Amino acid sequence: MGVTCVCQVPVAEGKSVQQTVDILHKKLEQLGAVKHGSFCVDCETYHATGNVSGQPSKLLYVMHNSENPLSCMALFEGGPCLIADANFDVLMVKLKSHFQNAKGHKVECRGSRYRYCDFLIKVGTVTMSSSARGISVEVEYCPCVVPGDCWNLMKEFMQSFLGPSVPELPSVFATKPEGLFAQADCVDTMTQYLELFNKVRKLQIPGSNVR
Fold first, then answer.
1. How far apart are CA 185 and CA 3, in angstroms?
2. A single GO molecular function, which one (predicted)?
3. pLDDT at 201 over 70
């Protein structure tokens, strides 16, 4: 995979979530992007049990991405991160005495994939308990794995259909010891989705009922 940027896009004024998604689809198609299937990213939250008295319960996030159907990712709050096979979900059930599923906290992002030249674009609706909480856009520049070599190009491309909603450089790249010249990987992508999911968990926006 290449360098990926995941961001939240605000709902257009006077529009619903779905109407805003449709507007983004139309802009991409006007650029010449071609629809290329669908995608799904989801996240389950678990509370660690049996913590030392007085210590806050640490959270564990188990995430799946349709781009990597045979694996899943477990991210502890504040690190570390584990990449495992799909059977990790079965293991979590067996570890219920140590990790308790936070019911009602599952977040899911579903939408369409588009290809445009060397870019892969995914526009998704972020839902929680069947209620739309926001809109995500993921842009991947496939030929490059070093953010510092392609960020300006990615930003220019995103401006062509996001306008003023273009995001800043994802913090996951800036905080690495090697900075923008560390190779990007799938953990960076899922970390960005987790940041977005945690943000939208706290929001309730107009036009949020999924039909």
1. 8
2. transcription coactivator activity
3. yes
Q: Looking at the whole model, is its pTM more than 0.70?
A: yes
Domains of the chain and any CATH numbers: 3-40+109-203 (3.30.310.180), 42-101 (no CATH)
CA angle 127, 128, 130 (to 5 degrees): 75
Q: Are 135 and 8 in contact (CB under 8 A)?
A: yes
Quote the longest CA-to-CA distance of the chain. Answer: 58
Helix (H) or strand (E) holding 65: strand 59-65
Q: Is pLDDT above 70 for 107?
A: yes
Quick one: tokens of 61?
Answer: 């996030």
| Residue 79 pLDDT > 90 | no
DSSP string, 4-22: EEEEEEPPPTT--HHHHHH
Q: Do residues 133 and 204 lie in contact, with contact meaning Cβ atoms separated by under 8 Å?
A: yes
63, 194 in Cβ contact below 8 A?
yes
